[in-house]
Design goal:
Elements: H1 33-53, E1 60-65, H2 73-84, E2 89-94, H3 101-117, E3 127-129, E4 135-137, E5 143-149
Parallel strand pairs: 1-2, 2-5
Antiparallel strand pairs: 3-4
Length: 156
């Protein structure tokens, strides 16, 4: 049935230890509001626990459909929460073959500008000196500067 959904899955991560988990509560979950809110709380609790208490969550991959264009309010809210929670994440732009190349380039550029506006690329948490000689700690930036562009139909 995988071919009906856009492509045959491939296992390119055969030498990588870990798990890929599709979490509910984000995107198009169809359920009563109270149920969706419960999913969101459970998801947040799980992510916080796995990152900060268990110490096993190394990176979250946030899948975003390229056909939707700019991130919506929910997308921005999730990215903001991940920043506040200090959970490293990478944006994966899916279904990129279904929009024009200029649209994909604009989306990637916008995400890269967001990364830069958060202070990314400025040392990544190392102590630096300001002009007045005082040292400061750079802010943690959870978003990765790398944006993955994918297409299951084109196998990229």
């Amino acid at each position: 049935k995988a071919e009906e959904r856009g492509g045959e899955p491939t296992n390119k991560l055969s030498n990588v230890e870990g798990y890929i988990i599709d979490l509910p509560g984000y995107g198009f979950g169809q359920a009563p509001r109270s149920v969706v809110e419960g999913w969101q709380k459970d998801t947040q609790d799980l992510l916080l626990n796995r990152r900060h208490e268990a110490g096993v969550l190394q990176r979250l991959f946030l899948l975003m459909d390229a056909r939707r264009g700019e991130p919506n309010e929910l997308d921005r809210s999730v990215m903001g929460w991940l920043e506040e929670a200090m959970i490293p994440y990478t944006i994966v732009l899916t279904k990129a073959d279904r929009v024009s190349v200029p649209m994909v380039v604009k989306q990637v550029n916008d995400f890269c500008l967001r990364y830069a506006s958060l202070g990314g690329g400025g040392g990544g948490g190392h102590d630096e000196q300001e002009e007045d000689g005082h040292e400061y700690e750079n802010a943690f930036v959870a978003q990765s500067p790398v944006i993955h562009v994918t297409s299951s139909k084109q196998n990229w």
